[in-house]
Design brief:
This protein has about 90 residues and is mainly alpha-helical. The chain is flat, with a radius of gyration of 20 Å.
Length: about 90
């Protein structure tokens, strides 16, 4: 845990020191790293026998909670976008 916090604080310090620099390529690097992390998470989950065997027991309740959470997040994101866009005077 100390390693994770140290890396995060180190990145924050470097970002603070380099805040005036233009890094137009950094968004592509971050997106690529997120995709790699998601892939590796899938590999880890797929390789875990207990998780794969337990997929059948998750049932309709877990599926409905997941769908409700996704729909709620999408609705909240849309509402926030609408409010922010409307405050700037644009047509929504």
């Amino acid at each position: 845990m100390f390693t994770v916090i140290s890396l995060m604080l180190g990145g924050m310090c470097i970002g603070f020191l380099l805040r005036r620099q233009q890094f137009s390529w950094i968004h592509r690097v971050i997106t690529t790293l997120i995709w790699i992390l998601l892939f590796l998470l899938g590999v880890e989950v797929g390789g875990n026998r207990q998780i794969i065997e337990g997929l059948a027991t998750l049932g309709l309740e877990a599926f409905s909670i997941t769908i409700a959470a996704v729909i709620g997040s999408c609705m909240a994101a849309w509402a926030l976008w609408y409010l922010l866009y409307k405050k700037k005077g644009g047509k929504a």
